[in-house]
Specification:
Layout (H helix, E strand, L loop, with lengths): L1 H20 L8 E2 L9 E7 L2 H4 L10 H15 L2 E7 L13 E5 L5 H14 L4 E6 L4 H19 L18 H7 L3 E4 L5 H4 L8 E4 L18 E5 L9 H9 L5 E5 L5 H13 L3 E3 L8 H8 L3 E4 L8 H8 L3 E5 L13 E2 L5 H16 L3 H15 L7 H13 L1
Parallel strand pairs: 2-3, 2-4, 4-5, 5-6, 6-7, 8-9, 8-11, 9-10, 11-12, 12-13
Antiparallel strand pairs: 1-3
Helix pairs in contact: 3-14, 4-6, 8-12
């Protein structure tokens, strides 16, 4: 274990140093022909290289993106493509090869780099197929939702102003409109007609559904233990994710308990909520937890419910992971998950944070009073739903959705 931790820290320090020196032309930021094939076609994938750099050292599911890009590379290999991968941190790579396809993360802050790569590839092959991977809502609409959430936060605390730099998950200088014009089709995370999917319909391009790889625990205990414990599994950007609203709601519900599992780093949230969380008997922050670890399995076994009140997501993997572990989950439509019009634990649309806090309280109290037999049925329904999106279905889903463009 010590050797693994040392290796990770050492590689991270080297990557940071290389970034500062803008030294990207190396093994940590670009990999050529990773399967050592001699096909007549090549694909350039712009994504994370973590699955190759850290390989056996960290879990594939420390972030689902690590597993997904690995599987995407295998798919292109099976379709007869030489596979090159450029890391998202590589801002200066110049692709000199002739590529038939370029695919990569394009809707977030890496969009400018993806556009740069596309322009270089087009000079070599004007007929190249371009597929932006849109792992969240359209950046323009996502920015609008995030700015609204921060403005509500500011109003609630009477802040006269706050630095835009403190707003997490904002897309800086989005260029997706230009990317869309070059694209063969948009690969959009989320189900058809979900929040994320619908933000891209304005571009009048074919939209390919992208289903994330949701981790499935090897062993899920069917515990009969019933708790009033709610788990919020969350990524970075706690205000965007609505964690502040959950804390406000649970501070008023001492009979219910909230556990927050996610990374530190949202300075504005921590400024106003660290002390409140520390002083609350029914709210606990446990930090980042690897979902593939025994530690996370133990956390889940002590919870019955999951909850997230995010304002802008593309088929939120943290919500789907909580479902995969058997939790009855409450969430907003902006998580881009569609469980049908009759799913009873979908938080309503509210423009006011105060109204949403009230809705969270009402929903949590209502679900906590539901009988065990009904909860068991909801759990079965959620597990049946999530089964279609679990990691062992990722390759089949990806090929099925993209076959008209790639085969």
């Amino acid at each position: 274990m010590f050797k693994k931790i040392f290796y990770i820290k050492f590689i991270n320090l080297v990557r940071i140093l290389f970034k500062k020196l803008k030294f990207y032309n190396n093994y940590l930021f670009v990999r050529k022909n990773i399967y050592k094939k001699t096909f007549s076609r090549s694909v350039l994938i712009f994504h994370k290289l973590d699955f190759l750099i850290y390989s056996d050292v960290v879990s594939q599911f420390k972030h689902t993106n690590n597993y997904e890009v690995q599987e995407i590379s295998k798919i292109f290999d099976s379709l007869g493509y030489n596979v090159d991968i450029v890391d998202v941190a590589n801002k200066s790579h110049i692709p000199n090869d002739f590529y038939s396809v370029i695919i990569g993360l394009a809707a977030g802050n890496n969009g400018n780099i993806f556009l740069r790569l596309c322009n270089f590839c087009l000079t070599k092959n004007p007929n190249i197929k371009i597929f932006p991977l849109c792992m969240g809502p359209d950046p323009y609409e996502s920015n609008m939702k995030i700015e609204e959430r921060y403005q509500s936060f500011s109003t609630r605390f009477g802040l006269k102003s706050f630095s835009k730099k403190s707003m997490m998950r904002i897309i800086n200088n989005p260029c997706f409109e230009t990317i869309s014009k070059l694209s063969t089709a948009l690969i959009v995370i989320g189900q058809k007609n979900s929040f994320s999917y619908n933000t891209y319909t304005k571009y009048s391009k074919p939209i390919i559904e992208y289903f994330p790889a949701i981790y499935k625990p090897a062993l899920l205990k069917n515990s009969s233990k019933r708790t009033n414990n709610f788990l919020c599994l969350v990524g970075n950007g706690f205000i965007v994710k609505g964690v502040d609203l959950l804390v406000e709601a649970f501070l008023k519900m001492p009979e219910l308990n909230l556990t927050i599992a996610g990374p530190k780093g949202d300075a504005l949230f921590e400024q106003f909520y660290d002390e409140k969380i520390a002083g609350a008997k029914n709210i606990k922050f446990i930090g980042f937890v690897d979902i593939a670890s025994d530690e996370f399995l133990e956390v889940v076994e002590n919870h019955t419910f999951g909850i997230l009140a995010s304002c802008s997501e593309g088929m939120c993997t943290s919500v789907m992971t909580m479902m995969s572990f058997g939790l009855i989950t409450i969430f907003t439509k902006e998580t881009s998950i569609i469980l049908g019009n009759n799913y009873p634990f979908l938080l309503s649309d509210f423009t006011s944070d105060v109204d949403l806090i009230i809705e969270i309280k009402n929903m949590c109290r209502r679900v906590s009073l539901i009988g065990d037999s009904d909860l068991t049925q909801y759990k079965i329904d959620l597990l049946n739903f999530i089964n279609n999106f679990q990691y062992d279905k990722f390759q089949a889903n990806f090929i099925l959705n993209t076959k008209d463009f790639l085969l």
